[in-house]
Design brief:
mainly beta, 5-stranded antiparallel beta sheet, 2 helices, 38% strand, globular
Amino acid sequence: MNPIIKEITSAQVKKDTPAFRVGDGVKVHTKVREGDKERIQIFAGIVIALKGHGIHETFTVRRISYGEGVERVFPVNSPMIEKIEIERESEPMKARLYYLRKRTGKAAMAIKGKRFEHKAAAAAPATPAS
């Protein structure tokens, strides 16, 4: 990227976004303006793609609503995004999860969950059975 453009856009890049990855379940809180009122609307789903970098970075969230797949592309640095919550983390096998578009029902949300090892279980030595 051109250093001049990078310097100008650096003030508009958000610094407080959480570190989420493809495959994570997220809740995106967006500001919605209806007439003269403004409210927060939540879009929850699975991140299927991350694209771009810097001010042009976007992510795509997919969810199933009333049996139909709904995808929405959000700019990471948009002022219309109030916050991003990470519901669950996962270990995807691919950089983009476009194969979820062909799945229906529970299979459309099935992604391998992240494994957490308990420190107490790992630190305790195994006792032999008598």
